Amino acid sequence: MTFSEFALSQAVLDGISNAGYTEPMPIQREAIPSILEGSDVVGCAQTGTGKTAAFLLPIIELLHTQGHARRYRPRALVLSPTRELAAQVVEHFEVLAKGTGLRACAITGGVDIGPQEVAFGNGVELVVATPGRLREHLSREGLKFTDLQVLVLDEADRLLDAGFLPDVRHIIDRLPERRQTLLFSATMPLEIEQLAHAILRHPKRIQVGLIQPRDSIREEFYPVSENQKSELFRAILAREDGIDRMIVFVRTRARAASLTPILAEVTNLPVGELHGDLDQKQRNETLEAFRAGELRLLVATDVASRGLDIADVTHIVNFDVPNTAEDYIHRIGRTARADRSGVAYTLVSTRELTLAEKIRGTVRRPIQTGRIPGFPYEELSDDGPSLMPGRSRLPRQYHERETGDGHRPSPFTKSGSLRRRHQDQSDPQENQRNRKKRIERKAKRKLPHKRRKR
Ligand code: AMP
Fold first, then answer.
1. Residue 137: its pLDDT value, please?
2. pLDDT value at residue 429
3. Using CB atoms within 10 A of its CB, is residue 88 exposed (0-12), middle (13-18) or buried (19+)?
4. Are 70 and 121 in a shared domain?
5. Which of 90, 250, 328, 375 is the most buried (most CB within 10 A)?
6. What pLDDT, on the 0 to 100 scale, is given for residue 364?
7. Of the residues 6, 18, 25, which should be mutated to test ligand 1's pocket, given the most ligand atoms within 8 Å of the CB?
8. How many CA atoms lie within 13 A of 124 on its CB side?
């Protein structure tokens, strides 16, 4: 199939050639005709498979046939969860709409509000905004959505979760009821989709492929104690070929800031950090340097997990296990964009085992358990920050023999603790004492339960 089979103007087809696209990707094949017909759409497709163009192309067609927007009255709005993603959507638009004369602007926080007002004042057809800053504009004079025809929620499940929902609701309440609404994401939990139906009219649901990571991503989970993560990271890297660019995801901003110099030393690569504690100028510069290849490794929080399209990210490392399977899918989706492949490694400490198992369960495919031969694994202990209530227990598959580079014995004993590397050299008396302590601890844990029973 070619793009010329869609009802698109020559100017839009020229934009497609300008982007270098020769044939539509599956989500584009399905979504473009439905959006051109005027339907509301819920579009789900795996990360990196062309969702942005799937909604931008029909929107450009619609805007193009209607001429310029009035001042302060944009006709299409894309909401995006991060500033970086908003900027990227505007960049895509500029490539695809080249030659149509249409204008777009990004309305995001962290920069002066004044120039954004000037942009509305001059007139733009499309606004791509993060919810917080857009709400701020709506509380001032000027911007009005009376002419709005199309609303897109990009990374819709994130925009409809509790953090963003109040702002998103506030914005949607100020849009005309007669409009076309499009929701796109690589993940769409059922409860979010049900919530979304309140803002949609008879939507067409388009799903391309299963909601899981792409097959072109090789995934492995590496159990390791928290305080050995940096060391294991170095060991993993030492046996990797072909690292072009790598993103290391961590849980918090503080962790990103503290880990960046450590990983710079461990890898000897130019390393940058990307998280919400940096001002927008720093964030933009870092991302730019990473895109340009001046930085080879990016230590990032989930601010970089959604939508960012950076060519040649060959490796993703989850230094901390993400909170949800959706976050996992989005994080590792930063590699293997379009027709490329990539690898994704996740370091799993004891306290993260339950989260890791939930992810395994949700992505519905076997993820190999990785182990570096000869690495001086310590016993897995309950170290690091507590991430979930209750004790984590080592799930069954961690006891199984590993596959991969031939059969290797599992690093775990039956009781669920990591087998010591030099067990044969350890002191038998100490082993005996430790065993006794373990039995005592176990007995203490059981005690309150027994009392309750009586
Ligand atoms: P997205 O999922 O929208 O972030 O797109 C992922 C990558 O696929 C981006 O680099 C796009 O430029 C690229 N892309 C989108 N549509 C096509 C297409 N029809 N042919 C080739 N590449 C595409």
1. 96
2. 54
3. buried
4. yes
5. 328
6. 78
7. 25
8. 25
Residue 262 CB coordination number (10 Å): 15
pLDDT of the residue at 381: 61
Give the predicted TM-score (pTM) of the model: 0.78
Q: Could you tell me which of 247, 224, 192 has the C-alpha nearest to residue 371? A: 224
Cα separation, 327 vs 185, in Å, equals 12
Whether residue 433 is contained in a domain is answered as no
Per-residue tokens: 199: 């803002």
CA distance 156 to 172: 13
> Which of 186, 453, 183 is CA-nearest to residue 334?
186
Regions of the chain with pLDDT less than 70: 380-454
| Ligand 1: residue whose CA is nearest its atom 11 | 50
Q: How far is the CA of 347 from the centre of ligand 1 (A)?
A: 30
Based on the domain organization, do 255 and 187 belong to the same domain? no
Closest-CA residue, ligand 1 atom 21, reads 21
Which of 183, 208, 233 is the endpoint of a domain? 208
Q: What is the CATH number of the domain that holds 387?
A: 3.40.50.300
> Measured in angstroms, how far is the CA atom of residue 427 from the centroid of ligand 1?
59
pLDDT digits (tens, 9 = 90+) for 369-379: 999 999 999 87
How many angstroms is it from 214 CA to the middle of ligand 1? 15
Domain range for residue 272? Answer: 217-398
Q: What is the pLDDT of residue 246?
A: 96
Pocket of ligand 1 (CB under 6 A): 21, 24-25, 28, 48-53, 309, 337-338
Query: Of 375, 398, 421, which residue is a domain's last?
Result: 398
Question: Which residue minimizes the CA distance to atom 15 of ligand 1?
Answer: 50
**Do 87 and 171 reside in the same domain of the chain?**
yes
The CA 267 to ligand 1 mean position distance, Å, reads 31
Q: SS3 breakdown of the chain: % helix, strand, coil, rounded to 5?
A: 45, 15, 40
- The Cα 207–Cα 123 span in angstroms is 35
When divided into structural domains, the chain yields a total of 2
Residue type at 25? M
Cα 33 from Cα 8, distance rounded (Å): 10
| Residue 101, both tokens | 């004369």
